[in-house]
Amino acid sequence: MDNEAMKRKLYAQNFKSNNGLVLRTINILRYQYHKLTDIEKVLEGEGIEQWEFIDAINYLSMSEYIKMKSLKTHDEVKEISQYTDYRILEAKLSPKGIKILSGTIVDEDVEV
């Protein structure tokens, strides 16, 4: 296996692991919305870099495993985009996110 193939395989495995870790962390805080920056700080201690955190939040929100809203307006935010500052968002688990953690549904890109 060449270096590029190894990098892609490592990235894919980290992506799955990071998605699961972010989802499980949000699950601990399940009943309330919590600032993404607070969740990010907790995960920094687990070795998750900022770009990995944003990547996971983006995937989890687009897959409807988490719900997000603006801290200022409380409007729902469907996904992080290049125009959205994630530092002004908060999140909580969605019913679909609870189902993936309980094993009712399976997503190969989320390691639970």
Average pLDDT rating? 88
| Proportion of residues in extended strands | 5-15%
Given helix and strand content, the structural type is alpha+beta
Number of helical regions: 4
**Shape from CA axes?**
globular
The radius of gyration is 14 Å
Give the end-to-end Cα distance, rounded to a whole number of Å: 28 Å
Helix-strand sequence: HEHHEEEH
Strand order of the largest sheet: 1-4-2-3
Largest β sheet strand count, sense and barrel closure: 4 strands, antiparallel
Low-confidence segments: none
Number of strands: 4
Helix content: 40-55%
Can you tell me about this structure?
50% of the residues lie in helices and 12% in strands. The two termini are 28 Å apart. Helix 1 packs across helix 3. The protein is α+β, with helices and mostly antiparallel strands. A hairpin with a 5-residue loop joins strand 2 (66-70) and strand 3 (76-77). Strands 1-4-2-3 form a four-stranded antiparallel sheet. The protein is globular and about 50 Å long.
